[in-house]
UniProtKB/TrEMBL annotation:
The enzyme's E.C. designation: 3.5.1.44
EC class of the enzyme, as a word: hydrolase
Superkingdom of the organism of origin: Bacteria
Coiled-coil stretches noted in the UniProt entry, renumbered to this chain: 69-126
Keywords recorded for this protein, A-Z: Chemotaxis, Coiled coil, Hydrolase
Family: Belongs to the CheD family.
Main function: Probably deamidates glutamine residues to glutamate on methyl-accepting chemotaxis receptors (MCPs), playing an important role in chemotaxis.
Catalytic reactions of this protein: L-glutaminyl-[protein] + H2O = L-glutamyl-[protein] + NH4(+)
Protein's name according to its UniProt entry: Probable chemoreceptor glutamine deamidase CheD
Pfam families, per database record: CheD
Length: 161
């Protein structure tokens, strides 16, 4: 077992086997895990907002689904990952407030997940699995050795996707 590398909020990290990546407390944020199964290079993005084009002065690329995925792919390629082989798993995007609403600014979780999927599609990256939505936070761990994405939530069984 390698090191467990922590990814903060609005942050991204890449690693090689046997290291693993983790991010704590994904609420409406989405954890996007990318993986090259041949080189076993992985990346994990903890994005908070769907779209960087809506915000001025967005110097933090990892805060947004769109620029975060761009940057994750760039860093993974720099480590030796092949862009054409990348696959993805995503988790998070919860609706943390118990209200049904059509107000977009309150549907951040859903919009984050949608934005991540749209961006993956632009890169032709296959989304292998997802665990999104509902109303609870998730802590995730991504293992570069196996490509397993382990999801832990309070009071729920551990889930591997």
């Amino acid at each position: 077992m390698g090191n467990m590398i922590k990814v903060g909020m609005a942050d991204l990290k890449v690693c090689k086997c046997p290291d693993a990546l983790t991010t704590l407390g994904l609420g409406s944020c989405v954890g996007v895990a990318l993986y090259d199964p041949v080189t076993k290079i992985s990346g994990l993005l903890h994005c908070m907002l769907p779209d960087s084009t809506q915000i001025r002065n967005n110097s933090n690329l990892a805060k947004f689904a769109d620029t975060g995925i761009d940057e994750l792919i760039r860093q993974m390629a720099a480590l030796g990952a092949n862009k054409n082989r990348l696959v993805a798993k995503i988790a998070g995007g919860a609706q943390m407030f118990a209200m049904t609403t059509t107000n977009d600014s309150l549907r951040v979780g859903e919009r984050n997940a949608e934005a991540a999927k749209k961006k993956l599609k632009e890169y032709n990256i296959r989304l292998l699995a997802e665990d999104c939505g509902l109303n609870y936070g998730r802590t995730v761990e991504f293992y570069s050795e196996t490509g397993d994405y382990v999801i832990k939530s309070v009071g729920k069984p551990v889930k591997t996707i």
